[in-house]
Inverse folding.
């Protein structure tokens, strides 16, 4: 639940430690949330997702858009074992997104299709269980 108006951030970095609990699914952050009802049904709203996928789901970093359904934008191979903490860092400026894990750059994407250029952020887990550490948001 979000109380009050959502931030309209245009350029920011989100950093959060994530530990996947099992071998399936993914965990990460939604960024540039522009439209999201409360409660939000699956595949609703307008936002980007950036996160890590467990070995059973692809063992990769993924960047995608949620606009009337899920749209993968890019992936990059990695090794993300359950039970191991990884620090995910997502930097977004307008429609450009870059992702690093534990200080190593993995993927970047500039979107010209959905072109969401502002919005808030939240955490997200899909088809898995994950533990999140403290979330840090820095406006750039």
């Amino acid at each position: 639940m979000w109380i009050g108006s959502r931030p309209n951030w245009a350029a920011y970095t989100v950093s959060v430690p994530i530990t996947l609990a099992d071998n399936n699914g993914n965990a990460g952050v939604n960024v540039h949330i522009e439209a999201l009802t409360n409660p939000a049904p699956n595949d609703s709203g307008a936002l980007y997702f950036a996160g890590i996928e467990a070995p059973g789901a692809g063992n990769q970093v993924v960047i995608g858009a949620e606009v009337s359904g899920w749209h993968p934008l890019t992936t990059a191979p990695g090794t993300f074992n359950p039970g191991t903490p990884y620090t995910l860092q997502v930097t977004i400026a307008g429609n450009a997104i870059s992702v690093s894990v534990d200080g190593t750059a993995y993927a970047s994407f500039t979107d010209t299709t959905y072109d969401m250029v502002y919005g808030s952020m939240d955490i997200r887990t899909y088809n898995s269980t994950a533990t999140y550490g403290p979330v840090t948001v820095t406006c750039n």
About this structure: Residues 11-139 form a domain with the Jelly Rolls fold (CATH 2.60.120.560). DSSP finds no helices and eleven strands in the chain. The chain has a mean pLDDT of 90. The longest strand covers residues 11-20.
